[in-house]
Amino acid sequence: MSSDDLENSTIVGQTVSEKLLMLLKTQGALQASDAGKLLGTTGEAARQQFVKMAKEGLVEAKSETRGVGRPIQLWHITEKGHAKFPDAHADLTTQLISIIRNQLGEDAMDLIISTREKEAFSNYKKAMEGATGLQEKVERLVSIRCREGYMAHYSVEDGAILFFENHCPICAAAKLCQGFCRTELKLFREILQANVERTEYILSGHRRCAYRITATNN
Fold this sequence. Notes:
Blueprint: H1 3-8, E1 10-11, E2 14-15, H2 16-27, H3 32-39, H4 43-55, E3 59-64, E4 72-77, H5 79-82, H6 90-104, H7 106-127, H8 134-147, E5 152-157, E6 160-165, H9 171-176, H10 179-192, E7 194-200, E8 209-215
Antiparallel strand pairs: 1-2, 3-4, 5-6, 6-8, 7-8
Helix pairs in contact: 3-4, 6-7, 7-10
């Protein structure tokens, strides 16, 4: 596939630019050669596409030294690139939060968060009915969160379950009110009945939110 073919083609309904953004969103920074392999094309074709995307402000290249030899070039998604993914009604959400705080006060905001937490707990708990074991619960949690737009997945490593969310569809709301994030961490612990530790956090500058989940000692 030539670079022109790469630029003009679509993959599973997506343009190549969108596909490359998805790769960076879900897998983190990549070399052009690795991105090319994942798309079934050459590293040079992927690099040329990245260069065009960089001119639009969607990605940026950074050099990284790994051991001996020349530094490698890794392509990262930018804030503008992240903005290509949906943040559910971000402008309206931030406006409503500001109005509630200014007109009704923090108590009203706390009530909204608490009510949302209770409804989520009821829905998630129902989804966990019949699940046998922690891993099956996490699998169901992944399904729920994917439907809600969090691009979730999990892996098992060293006796722990690592749970990842590559996107936050309520990021605008979470930036204004981190109570949403606190209640979600509490929600995960309660519905999984497990130890849940947040190890990566989008609002702290990480590219995703990640959690380490282990069974309780009870």
